[in-house]
Q: What sequence folds into this?
C-alpha cells in the first residue's frame, strides 16, 4: 500500500509539473520559462521539482514525448492511401476539437518553438508511413533516392499541418487532407487536373 501511494504521488507531481509547463508555454516564450516559473504555477517547491526533472529542457522533452505518444500515428503502420487519408482526417479533427493541444502544437512548431519537437513529428511520420509510401515509389529508385523523397514529403507535410493549425484553422479538415494527399502523390500537377478543382474551393 505505501508503495502504491508513493507511485500515485509521483504520477500526480509529475503531471502537475507538466501541466504547469503547458500553461506557461501558452503564455510566454519557451526561452523565458524557468524552473521557478513552473514550480510557482504548480505550487510545488524546487527541491521536489529536481527529484523528478533535471531542468526546464528535461521536463519540456518529457512533455513533448508524451504528446507524441498520444498521437494516432505513434507506433502505427499505414499501408495504403485510403488508410493514410482516413487517419489524417481523424487526426486533424481530434486537434480541432482540443484547442489546448492545438495551441501547444502550434507554439512548439513555430519559429519560437522547439526544433526537437518538429524533428520528433517528422521521425514519427516517416516511420508510420514508410511502407505505404514505399509501395508507390518507382521501382528504379534506390534507397538513397527514396530517403531524399521521403524527407521532402515529410518536411512539407509537417510544415503544412503546422500552418493549418496556426493560420488556416477555418479550412475544413477534409479539404486540407485532399490538398495534402494531392500534393504528396502528384506535386503541383495536382492543381492542373480539372477534376481536382472542387477539392479545395477558393470561395
A:
Amino acid at each position: 500500500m505505501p508503495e502504491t501511494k508513493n507511485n500515485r504521488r509521483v504520477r500526480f507531481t509529475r503531471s502537475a509539473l507538466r501541466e504547469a509547463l503547458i500553461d506557461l508555454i501558452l503564455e510566454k516564450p519557451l526561452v523565458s520559462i524557468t524552473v521557478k516559473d513552473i514550480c510557482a504555477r504548480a505550487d510545488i517547491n524546487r527541491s521536489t521539482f529536481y527529484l523528478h526533472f533535471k531542468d526546464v529542457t528535461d521536463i519540456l522533452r518529457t512533455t513533448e514525448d508524451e504528446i507524441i505518444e498520444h498521437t494516432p500515428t505513434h507506433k502505427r503502420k499505414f499501408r495504403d492511401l485510403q488508410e493514410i487519408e482516413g487517419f489524417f482526417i481523424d487526426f486533424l479533427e481530434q486537434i480541432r476539437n482540443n484547442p489546448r493541444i492545438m495551441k501547444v502544437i502550434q507554439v512548439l512548431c513555430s519559429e519560437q518553438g522547439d526544433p526537437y519537437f518538429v524533428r520528433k513529428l517528422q521521425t514519427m511520420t516517416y516511420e508510420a508511413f514508410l511502407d505505404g509510401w514505399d509501395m508507390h515509389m518507382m521501382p528504379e529508385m534506390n534507397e538513397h533516392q527514396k530517403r531524399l523523397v521521403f524527407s521532402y514529403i515529410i518536411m512539407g507535410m509537417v510544415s503544412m499541418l503546422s500552418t493549418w493549425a496556426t493560420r488556416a484553422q477555418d479550412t475544413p479538415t477534409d479539404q486540407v487532407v485532399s490538398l495534402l494527399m494531392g500534393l504528396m502523390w502528384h506535386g503541383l500537377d495536382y492543381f492542373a487536373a480539372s477534376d481536382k478543382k472542387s477539392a479545395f474551393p477558393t470561395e
Remarks:
- The chain has a mean pLDDT of 77.
- The longest helix spans residues 143-167.
